[in-house]
Amino acid sequence: MINDEMDFTNIQKLREKAEKKLNETRKTKNGELNTIDVNKLLHELQVHQIELEMQNEELQQAYKAAEKALKKYTTLFDFSPMGYFSLDSDGSICDLNFTGANMLEERRFSLINSNFKLFIADESKPIFNDFFGKLYVSNVRESCKVWLGYDNKILCQVYMEGIVLENEKNCFLSVVDISKFSNV
Known about the structure:
The protein is α+β, with helices and mostly antiparallel strands. The protein has helices spanning about 1-5, 10-25, 35-80, 100-105, 110, 125-140, and strands spanning about 85, 95, 140-150, 155-165, 170-175.
């Protein structure tokens, strides 16, 4: 019988005991629920409901503001006149904007997971490899000028700056086409 009393795994019995105990503590001498306790409980529930509604409104406003900011910064990233690339430590493209894809003369989403180093012209590979290696060693902003190209096809000369943020595995490159400014 004692084991039956202490069995907390039977949810139905536990609930019945809890309700019984609650009713015993809430009854007055006449056996009726104390109306003051009921009114207090009702008031607390109503206040809590209003608090939740106010929090919900704040969350909805914050969500709308976040959506607006996301749209704004996504548009700024995607349509910037500068190419932006996120590369992993092997040089694979994790993300890029439309300008970056145009510089490589490829469709944006077909470039994801491609190795960026394949788009560096042969004569610029040593410069780029030195630049890329320094990024992961120094954790400071580095820059270089290289020619983009592949299959003996030169695309353009670019100035790029890159940085690897602390504890990040990806480097972030900003790339500007300087072909029209260079003397070839």
